[in-house]
C-alpha cells in the first residue's frame, strides 16, 4: 500500500516547488489537487504568446541538469522523455561597457586563456577555483541541499561538521573571489550567478561559489520549448501519477476544520486533509490564514532582505540580432553602484547591469520566420514605484544602453513589445514587495534561517518553494518539493 493512500492534499500554487511536491505526494498515493491563481501553470515560469512569438516570462536558464535527472529518476523517468535538451555553446556572452567582449564556452582551456589574457596566472587560478567549487557542490548538495537541516543543532552535529570541513561556509563571495582573482572583470565573471540567488557579492555567503561548478563544468542548457516546456513536462508526469491541476482559481482563504482544511477560492471550495502552499510565503501567512494561525508577524516580513525585482521587456524584432548570443550579459566595469541601488539605497539604476535572452538563436519555434525573439531583464530593487512615466523613461534608457554597448538597435524593428515589472510581480504572483525571486540568500537567510517547510502554528499545513530551503532557483525549488513531501510522509505516511 502506498504511504499516503487515503490522504487528500491541496497544493496552492503551481510554481516548480508546487509541481514537484505534487508529483512526490501523488506518487506516494495521495489524492492531490493543485490550484493555480493564474490562467496557466508554472508560477513565475509563465509563458507569454503574442502574434507568433512565445516568451518565457520568468526563468530562462536551464542549469544543474543533474537535479532534473534526479527528480525525474525518482519516478523511473528521464527528462528527455518529456523535452529535448541542447547544450549551449557559448554558454553566454559578456559585453563590458568599456568595449571588452568575452564568450564563456564549453571549452575550459579556451576560457582559461581568456582569464590569462586579463591577469597572469588567472588561468591556473580558475582551475583551482573550480576544483573548490566542485568540492563545495558535491559535499554541499549531498549534505546541505538535499538534506533539510532545519535547526542549528543539526548544523553543529559532529557528522555534519566532519562533512563540512574545508567548505567555504562563512565569509562573503566578494572576499572568496578576491582570494583567487585581482582583476575586477574576472571577479564579475565569477560572481554574475549571484543574480540567480537574489544576492550581491557582499551579502551572499562564500558557500555559493558552488554555482561556478554549475556554470563552467555542468554547463548551460536549453530545453525544447523553453522553461515552459519543462513545466509542461512536469505537469504531464504529474497527471500520469494521478495529480489534478486547476487554473484560474485564486485562493482566498485557508480555513481549518475538524480533521482537516477548507481551501476557498473565488470559484469553489476544496476539502483537504493536508495543505501545501507554494504561493508567496508572506502572502499565505498574511492574507490566506487568520491571525492566530500565522507563524510570523507583518514586522517579520517587512524586516527580511528580498531578492531583486526586475524590469523586463519582451520584444519581437524584425530580422536577426547577430551581436547577441542566446544568453548575453551587459556589465558596467564597476557594478557596485547597481548592487547598492538594489540593497542599500533603492533606486532605478542609471548605469545598469542586465541580461538579454534570445531563444530564437536556438529554437526556431519561438518566433515567426525572419524575426527574433528576445527579452531584457534588469535587476532592480523590490518595492520601487514603477508608474507609467518611470517605465517610459527606463525603457528609453535601456534601449539606448543596448544600442550603445552591444551595437544592437532595436527601436525601429520591434513588432511586439510588452513590459513587466514590480507591479506585475505583485499583482500576478502576490509577491512580497514585487520581488522576482523571494528571500535573498544572505548569511542570515540561508539554511535553517529560512522559513520552515512545516508550519509551526498549524498541523497539516506545509510550505514549499523559494522561501524555504534550499532556496531560490528552479533546481532548488524542485528539491524544496522533495523536502516538503518527505515532511508530509514523515508526519502522515502509513
Automatic annotation (TrEMBL):
Oxidoreductase in keyword set: yes
GO molecular-function terms, A-Z: oxidoreductase activity
Known pathway: Carotenoid biosynthesis
Biological process according to GO: carotenoid biosynthetic process
UniProt cross-references to Pfam families, sorted A to Z: Amino_oxidase
Domain Amine oxidase: 17-489
Keywords: Carotenoid biosynthesis, Oxidoreductase
Entry protein name: Phytoene desaturase
Amino acid at each position: 500500500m502506498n504511504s499516503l493512500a487515503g490522504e487528500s492534499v491541496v497544493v496552492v500554487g503551481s510554481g516548480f516547488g508546487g509541481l514537484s511536491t505534487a508529483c512526490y505526494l501523488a506518487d506516494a498515493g495521495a489524492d492531490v489537487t493543485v490550484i493555480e491563481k493564474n490562467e496557466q501553470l508554472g508560477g513565475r515560469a509563465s509563458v507569454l504568446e503574442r502574434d507568433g512569438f512565445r516568451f518565457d516570462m520568468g526563468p530562462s536558464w536551464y542549469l544543474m541538469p543533474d537535479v532534473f535527472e534526479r527528480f525525474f529518476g525518482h519516478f523511473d523517468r528521464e527528462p528527455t522523455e518529456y523535452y529535448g535538451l541542447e547544450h549551449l555553446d557559448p554558454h553566454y556572452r559578456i559585453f563590458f561597457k568599456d568595449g571588452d567582449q568575452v564568450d564563456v564556452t564549453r571549452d575550459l582551456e579556451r576560457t582559461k586563456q581568456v582569464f590569462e589574457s586579463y591577469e597572469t596566472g588567472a588561468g591556473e587560478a580558475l582551475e583551482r577555483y573550480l576544483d573548490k567549487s566542485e568540492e563545495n557542490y558535491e559535499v554541499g548538495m549531498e549534505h546541505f541541499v538535499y538534506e533539510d537541516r532545519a535547526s542549528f543543532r543539526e548544523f553543529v552535529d559532529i557528522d555534519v561538521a566532519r562533512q563540512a570541513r574545508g567548505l567555504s561556509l562563512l565569509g562573503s563571495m566578494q572576499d572568496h573571489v578576491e582570494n583567487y582573482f585581482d582583476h575586477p572583470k574576472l571577479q564579475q565573471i565569477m560572481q554574475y550567478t549571484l543574480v540567480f540567488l537574489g544576492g550581491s557579492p557582499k551579502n551572499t555567503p562564500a558557500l555559493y561559489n558552488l554555482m561556478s561548478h554549475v556554470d563552467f563544468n555542468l554547463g548551460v542548457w536549453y530545453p525544447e520549448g523553453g522553461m515552459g516546456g519543462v513545466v509542461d513536462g512536469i505537469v504531464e508526469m504529474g497527471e500520469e501519477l494521478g495529480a489534478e491541476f486547476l487554473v484560474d482559481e485564486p485562493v482566498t482563504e485557508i480555513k481549518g476544520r475538524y480533521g482537516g482544511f477548507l481551501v476557498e477560492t473565488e470559484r469553489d471550495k476544496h476539502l483537504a486533509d493536508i495543505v501545501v502552499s507554494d504561493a508567496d510565503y508572506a502572502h499565505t501567512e498574511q492574507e490566506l490564514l487568520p491571525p492566530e494561525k500565522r507563524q510570523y508577524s507583518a514586522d517579520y516580513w517587512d524586516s527580511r532582505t528580498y531578492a531583486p525585482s526586475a524590469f523586463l521587456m519582451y520584444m519581437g524584432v524584425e530580422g536577426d540580432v547577430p551581436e547577441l548570443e542566446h544568453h548575453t550579459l551587459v556589465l558596467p566595469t564597476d557594478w557596485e553602484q547597481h548592487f547598492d541601488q538594489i540593497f542599500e539605497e533603492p533606486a532605478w539604476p542609471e548605469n545598469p547591469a542586465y541580461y538579454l535572452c534570445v531563444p530564437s538563436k536556438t529554437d526556431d519555434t519561438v518566433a515567426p520566420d525572419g524575426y527574433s525573439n528576445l527579452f531584457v531583464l534588469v535587476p532592480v530593487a523590490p518595492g520601487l514605484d514603477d508608474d507609467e512615466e518611470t517605465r517610459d523613461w527606463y525603457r528609453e534608457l535601456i534601449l539606448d544602453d543596448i544600442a550603445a554597448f552591444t551595437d544592437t538597435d532595436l527601436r525601429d524593428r520591434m513588432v511586439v513589445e510588452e513590459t513587466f515589472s514590480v507591479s506585475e510581480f505583485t499583482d500576478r504572483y502576490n509577491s512580497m514587495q514585487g520581488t522576482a525571486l523571494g528571500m535573498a540568500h544572505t548569511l542570515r537567510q540561508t539554511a535553517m534561517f529560512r522559513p520552515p517547510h512545516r508550519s509551526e502554528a498549524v498541523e497539516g499545513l506545509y510550505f514549499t518553494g523559494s522561501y524555504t530551503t534550499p532556496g531560490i532557483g528552479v533546481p532548488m525549488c524542485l528539491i524544496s518539493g522533495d523536502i516538503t513531501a518527505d515532511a508530509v510522509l514523515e508526519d502522515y505516511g502509513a
